[in-house]
Amino acid sequence: MTALVRLRLAGFLRTGRILAPLLAGLVVLGVLYGGGRAQPAEAYGVSAVVLFPVLAWQTKLLLDVEPDVQRRMALVAVGSRRREQVAGLVAATVVALGTVALALLLPWPLGGLAGPVAADDRPLPVGIALGLWAHLLAVPAAVALGALASRACVGSTGYGVAVLAVGSVVAVVFGRSGSALPWLAPPVMPTARATTAGVAVPTALLLTGWAVLWSGVVLAGYAWRRRLRG
Length: 230
Prior knowledge:
By secondary structure, the chain is an all-alpha fold. It has eleven helices and no strands. The radius of gyration is 18 Å and the shape is globular.
């Protein structure tokens, strides 16, 4: 399975498909940070929201690089449908974490972050830790959505784009404050608000559990669809 992860990562890099979502994400974040300096927790919270659809798109592209015949051969090679699926998800997570690392580093050379100014501003390490937490919560949800939109799951590029678009819109619409159905969306918006307003330990645990549960449900749907499609 490790060899299959490396193979998929190599294919994603060699084909250059990593460039489109990566450049799109960096451009949007560059515009965001170019608008002025902000506290790390607030800036990174917004960054996680912006990156969510980018990471999902990135995951879809990675899983779609492999031709259908090669994917079936990989399934035979690893001897298990679950291993084949996990290998793809692990590869997508590795790429997503690399993108997150770039997103966390980007505002520093751009001068987009400010240290504590007022007495109630968080210390810089605390703000950075909250920003890292916000991004790490976005990763599993984005990978799950991207997997659900992959060609192996939905059968065509058009359906995949529709799944990505609907998932991204749902994340924003149902993630708004006062939403009647907040649990339908991953907690990227609530997490961004929490990093700005302050995060108590119970709130952090609730948001973390929410992200894990939402991602698990979507990944279960992905596995079910893959099983139906053979």
